[in-house]
From TrEMBL:
It comes from Streptomyces thermocoprophilus. This is DUF1876 domain-containing protein. It holds the Pfam family Rv2632c-like.
Amino acid sequence: MMHTTVGWHVELEFMEDDQHTRAVALVRLPDGSEVRAHGRATRHRTDSNQPRVGEEIAGARALNELAMQLLTKAHEEIDQASGRTSQPIHV
């Protein structure tokens, strides 16, 4: 039987104008560290203005960057604890 011992909350914040959407993703980890990532989306001038679509694209890009940073952090912690270079962590 599995038991949940920790939960993470990811925050996403958006800044928008008529053509650009920027997203910031933040997760606070139980060890007290924070990982922050950014994503952007740009609306083509011929596309209709759909802010939610810009948020989805910029948010997905920020979350993707956040995931890559977390994988890198985990990889570095494995190396540090083992004293050697570990195998790459694949997505």
